[in-house]
Specification:
By secondary structure, this protein is mainly alpha-helical. The protein contains three helices and two strands, in the order αααββ. The protein has a domain of 70 residues. Helix 2 packs antiparallel against helix 3.
């Protein structure tokens, strides 16, 4: 992974006047794997690990109350913004927004404001 604070030797260097590059010849040791991790397989797939990891499950349980507070605050903020824009927000809009945030599912009639401030329903998007 490239990081800005590390030098990257993937390409030949750009050298100014008076500089030359004297790269050593590559050294390959017979019988040794080119990569130390070559041929290694993980014990579990990522999906299996996510399903069975006690450490991950404990972290999720610990974060759940704070996440729930943030979800409720987000829903309240969006409904308040809707009230300011149109002067109202309905129970239907609250339900649709709550389902979208908590269940991560958009229903066909989920209302969303476009950047042009026109109302768009998901049913109209193709």
């Amino acid at each position: 992974m490239w990081q800005p604070e590390r030098l990257d030797f993937a390409a030949a260097p750009v050298l100014g006047d008076g500089l030359e590059r004297r790269a050593p010849a590559p050294l390959i040791i017979p019988g040794a794997p080119v990569l130390l991790t070559a041929g290694l397989e993980p014990e579990l797939s990522m999906a299996e690990w996510r399903r069975t990891s006690e450490l991950l499950n404990d972290a999720k349980k610990k974060a759940r109350p704070e996440a729930e507070k943030k979800r409720k605050a987000f829903i309240k903020e969006r409904l308040n913004a809707k009230k300011k824009g149109s002067g109202r927000s309905s129970k239907h809009e609250k339900r649709a927004l709550t389902e979208a945030v908590t269940d991560r599912a958009l229903m066909a009639d989920f209302p969303e404001l476009c950047s042009s401030r026109h109302q768009l329903n998901i049913v109209g998007v193709r």
